[in-house]
Amino acid sequence: MISKVRIENFRSIEDQVISFQNLTALVGHNNSGKSNILRAISTCLGKEWQSVSDFSLEDFIDYDTSRDIVIELEFDPPLEYRGFKYEDPVAVPVLRFALTRYKQTTKEHAKGDLRLESKPLDHERNPVRVLAEAPKAGKQRRYEPLTKIPKELKRQLPLIHIDTTRDLAQQMPAARYSLLRRMLEDIADEIDADTISIDGRSVNRREEFERRLSEVIDVLRVPSFTELEDAIRDAAIENLGIGPDDSDLFRLEFGLFSPMDFFKAMEIWIQENGLRYLAESLGQGAQNAIVLSIFQAYERFKKTGAVFLIEEPEMYLHPQRARAFYDTLRRISEDNQVIYTTHSAYFTSVPHFDEIRIVSKKQGHRTVVKRSELHDTQDLRDRLDQQIDPERSELFFADHVILVEGPTEKMAFPVWAERLGVDLNRLNISVIEVGGKKSLPLFADVVASLAIPLTVVFDTDSSDFGSQRDEEAEFNRKMVDRESAGVRVIPTDPSYEKAYRTQIGEELFLTLTNRYPGQSKPIRAVRIARDPDAPIPAFCRAVFEPWTDYHNDYSEGRTAGE
Q1: pLDDT at 388
Q2: Does residue 112 surpass a pLDDT of 70?
């Protein structure tokens, strides 16, 4: 598993260390740098051999080719390398890739030409040392640095990257690092070892496959096919200097497919309503559905050890299918690693806050990545598991979170904000209800740990505490103390409804409530908030005060930050 990646001077990323788990979600605005993180990993692990040509001018930060690109991937557990059959495996915890320049002119390169250095390193970032020659009895072993990254190391961590194009061709067996190919390679190995019964006798399945395929090739042997084979054979005899007496011993013919070669050539066809067409000719939404089906088959086959990089898994999915696919990713991540970018609350979960990485741009220019430093205990997990609600996962995507106790504030606050001229959606502000006053600290800890700006609104006299007044007073004091940590805290004294009743007076309050008889408390609060005769509560003005001036500036043509 990739436990950590350090990226320097790659696209929008100047210097970031990003930790990963079996399942990790990268969350942030468009153009914040989420895809750049996946691109950095894919560039290093997506092929058995990397070269300078795998990078482009756009990969250099600020297009500045004088600054080295460095990508270090750390693994837990480490990869293992064995250069010789009887050599003990050597741990390789780090792979380092650096796109730099030649310091002096060589026979093949001029000073200043780009060069790619790829090195296996130990935890102290020293070169991994391996046997220089095969071990022999009675001879002292000699070690040397491993200066290149052998393909055997990459093969221990097959990487499958699914980008936003959802091109089915990228997941077909012909693609070297595809999901379907990974499953078919195992099937090809099974074919080599399996037998089939032919006329009562046991025959190796691969040998029978090759025998039958030779019959197919015989069908293809039109005269020009044979002439082509003969022409190549005659030319080869001449080029190899084979004499006339030996020419009959030299044969050349077009070879047979191996089972895996046959699988590589396979295509997916769709038959529907009497029509037959290639799956790759379908629209992107339909191709995406087939890619997801391959994922589900991967889960069913219980394959292990792969790294999946997925961009926006929610694309083209209805909410129910999005939730189902998120469950699929969670199950796949039990034996593989899944790293994905998302804009969907269906692919995040408050109880799994430790899997979230908030990606943003510092001063609108450099990508920074933030993870929660909140200590994840079993007690904390159990308490958050009781609060599972897809709407609450919206907090991970907000530029500012307003935490409230329950549905009354959750439903009424957006209406009051609208009346104050504050567009919560445009400002990317989320009002999140936490299911009761006692849950406020729990959510406040999670939000604050991700460095998301936070406002907490709570009743000073809540039914959650019943007659436990001293306990509630201590709770209120601790909530107010959060202001010292940069949290905006706004108490409603003693409660939303009572504070509003006191502000507007008994007569007007009764007039407003009598207009909406038989309604639940949250619905009545919303309808009162929409009533033009209802004054805006002072505590709501306090909640949205930071954005009232912003909105007025915005409406006059100014942009954020001016």
Answers
A1: 66
A2: yes
Amino acid at 474: E
Tokens describing residue 207: 């040998």
Burial 100-133 (b: 16+ CB within 10 A, else e): eeeeeeeeeeeeeebeeebbbbeeeeeebebbee
Mean pLDDT of 47-53: 87
Which contacts (CB < 8 Å, 24+ apart) does range 312-316 have? 312/164, 312/340, 312/341, 312/342, 312/343, 312/344, 313/340, 313/342, 313/344, 313/347, 314/342, 314/343, 314/344, 314/346, 314/347, 315/164, 315/166, 315/288, 316/166, 316/284, 316/285, 316/288, 316/289
Is-contact 533 512, C-beta < 8 A? yes
- Measure the CA–CA gap between 217 and 221, rounded to whole angstroms: 7
Give backbone dihedrals phi and psi of 442, rounded to 5 degrees, phi first: -60, -50
Spell out the residues 6+ positions from residue 318 whose beta carbon is closer than 8 angstroms to its own.
Answer: none
Residues present in the chain in total: 562
Q: What is the pTM of this model?
A: 0.87
Q: What is the pLDDT at residue 551?
A: 45
- Cα separation, 79 vs 103, in Å, equals 31
Comparison of pLDDT for 169 and 455, the residue scoring more: 455
Q: List the structure tokens of 85.
A: 């059959």
| Cβ atoms of 454 and 487 closer than 8 Å | yes
| Token pair belonging to 172 | 């077909």
CA 280, CA 429: separation in Å to the nearest integer?
40
Is 70 exceeded by the pLDDT of residue 557? Answer: no
Q: 555: pLDDT confidence band, cut at 50, 70 and 90?
A: very low
Bridge partners of 426, per DSSP, are: none
Burial of 53 (0-12, 13-18, 19+ CB in 10 A): exposed
Q: Would you say 269 and 278 are in contact if contact means Cβ atoms under 8 Å apart?
A: yes
Tokens representing residue 45 in the block: 């692990």
Of 353, 356, 288, 352, the closest CA to residue 318 belongs to: 288
pLDDT > 70 in the chain, percent:
97
Residues with Cβ < 8 Å from 41, sequence gap 6 or more?
Answer: 2, 5, 71, 73, 159, 307, 309, 339
The DSSP bridge partners found for residue 369 are 359
How many other C-beta atoms can be found within 10 angstroms of the C-beta atom of residue 96? 19
| pLDDT of the residue at 343 | 96
Cis peptide before 522 (omega within 30 of 0): no
The residue type found at 3 is S
Strands (DSSP E) contained in 411-473 are: 429-433, 454-459
